[in-house]
Amino acid sequence: MKKRVLITGASSGFGEACARRFSEAGDDLVLCARRMDRLQALSEELSGQSEVVIQTLDVTDPQAVEGFLDALPEASREIDVLVNNAGLALGLQPAHEADLQDWQTMVDTNIKGLMHMTRLILPGMVQRRRGHIINIGSVAGSWPYPGGNAYGATKAFVQQFSRGLKADLVGTPLRVTNIEPGLAETEFSLVRMKGDAQQAADVYQGTQPLTGPDIAEIVYWVTAVPPHVNINALEVMPVCQAWSPFAVDRTLGDDL
Ligand code: NDP
Ligand code: 8X3
């Protein structure tokens, strides 16, 4: 059955790939992000096979989010699937050197933005007794690594918030899923490295990372399983990635 899918952060990476995947299936799309030129180009590409509505949105702006649905054409306001994908990491400095503003931006986007969108869309889903919230978490929400401090903590929020939503929605036909990707080549590292293309490329050097289409296929699949099946969480890494061993320092000696 055809769905209306709202994707945040549809201007690049996972969001853009999800737009293509749902469009391929013939679903209707509502796409948002801050970069309208990107959304415009995507809409022109996909409009032949899907109904596509685009709207600029900064998910960190509560007032903009509040007015988002009302600004859509009336026929596009009933959302069946919300892909809470907009998000970012900024910096890889250790906590004592990190930029506090970067931490605030990650909290505002990855936590508050996701809450704003959920609170906007969820009541209509509950009322219509139809809907699926798909949050894009991260392996960083479960597994710490140096420099992942605030970013990982925002994704730990996404993990637990997703579980909380699922708990609240028992007794409704709604579904909630947290997708937790590992190393994936998108614009993520370019953003994290503040536009340094060489540093961003180094992240993927010698690896075969996940891609936008890899994650989009999984996002699509969790919506396609029978309606009584809820994929609660799905952690996915490329074959080349695994967890680190515990760090053990052997140099501190008399400092302790
Ligand atoms: P990209 O940088 O390619 O895409 C991020 C998207 O988020 C862009 O479309 C951007 O659009 C949007 N975005 C960022 N801030 C805002 C905002 N304030 N309001 C609205 N949209 C915003 O990275 P990915 O596709 O990789 O990232 C998508 C999600 O996946 C993020 O939540 C990220 O944390 C997560 N993730 C990424 C992994 C990776 O290794 N790539 C692994 C695990 C999780 P615009 O700038 O136009 O607003
Ligand atoms: C992005 C994956 O490992 O860079 O969420 O944190 S990682």
From TrEMBL:
Superkingdom of source: Bacteria
GO molecular function, one term: oxidoreductase activity, acting on the CH-OH group of donors, NAD or NADP as acceptor
One Pfam family per UniProt: adh_short
Coiled coil: none
UniProt entry keywords in alphabetical sequence: Oxidoreductase
Entry-linked InterPro entries: NAD(P)-bd_dom_sf (IPR036291), SDR_fam (IPR002347)
Keyword ATP-binding found: no
Family assignment from sequence similarity: Belongs to the short-chain dehydrogenases/reductases (SDR) family.
Protein name: NAD(P)-dependent oxidoreductase
Organism of this sequence: Candidatus Thiodiazotropha endoloripes
